[in-house]
Amino acid sequence: MERKKAIVLLSGGLDSAVAMWLAKSQGYEVYALSFSYGQRHSIELEKAKTLVESAKISGHRIVDINMGQWGGSSLTDMSMNVEEGDIHKKEIPQTYVPARNLVFLSVAASMGEAIEAYDIFIGVSEVDYSGYVDCRQSFIDSMESTINMGTVAAVEEGKKFKIHAPFVYKTKVDEIIMGMDLGVDFANTWSCYKGEGTPCGVCDSCKLRAEAFRKAGYSDPAI
Ligand SMILES: [Zn+2]
Fold first, then answer.
1. EC number(s) for this protein (predicted)?
2. Spatial contact of 38 and 195, defined as CB atoms under 8 Å apart
3. Domain membership flag for residue 223
4. Phi, then psi, of 214 in degrees rounded to 5
5. Cα 194 to ligand 1 centre (Å)
6. What does the pLDDT read at residue 38?
7. pLDDT digits 0-9 by tens, 19-70
8. CA of 65 relative to ligand 1 center, distance in Å
């Protein structure tokens, strides 16, 4: 029997890596989709390529969509600094990239319709999501409905898209424990918002990652 295809949004970070290994473990023929979106550094895309090789999946596309042209985030606007993280702060951090997951999932739907991959995996979590509204289940549900209304495959051929957000109610600790079982190549995942050779250790993302590995009871293989 032909295997079902899935697209995994792969940033090169920890969450998307676990999502990719999970999709593979569920028997999907996996295609990774990454974006060169104007992020501060290209390390995570290099990591994404390495992860694709170590997961031995079917294909990888890197789409160029320069959202840095209009800025609005310290991840894409070089005139802004990445602030030191306070992972317990409630306000939306400057690292929020305007409508990023809305754009990424739309592109995934386009690729999915073209290659007949109707399952899309995204590694978002609304538990430790830094207040990013596009990481919540309500958003995922809404995007899924939109994609199923805006594609010929779904409307006329009955090929319904499903957006899988397997970690939406999980913590990073849960993800790391699951990822260790799945054999995720954590050593080649990149979480730091800065891209300076070694993780900075002080940004939001570095702090969340360090805390999660500690709570999961593993040392971080990337450090
Ligand atoms: Zn960092």
1. 6.3.4.20
2. no
3. no
4. -60, -45
5. 6
6. 82
7. 999 999 999 999 999 999 887 778 999 999 999 999 999 899 999 998 888 8
8. 24
Is the CB of residue 175 less than 8 Å from the CB of residue 182?
no
Question: Cα(183)–Cα(25) distance, rounded to whole angstroms?
Answer: 10
Q: Around 136, how many Cα atoms within 13 Å sit in the side-chain half-sphere?
A: 8
CATH number, domain containing residue 142: 3.40.50.620
> Looking at the domain assignment, is residue 169 inside a domain?
yes
Ligand 1 mean position, distance from CA 108 (Å): 28
The residues, ordered by sequence, that sit 6+ positions from 86 with a Cβ below 8 Å of its Cβ are: 204
The three-state DSSP-derived secondary structure of 49-91 is HHHHHHHCCCEEEEEECCHHHCCCCCCCCCCCCCCCCCCCCCC
Please tell me whether the overall predicted TM-score, pTM, comes out greater than 0.90 for this model.
yes
Going from the Cα of 59 to the center of ligand 1, the distance in angstroms, rounded, reads 29
User: And the tokens for 176?
Assistant: 């790391």
Distance 216 CA to ligand 1 centre (A): 19
Identify the residue whose tokens are 């899935």.
Answer: 6
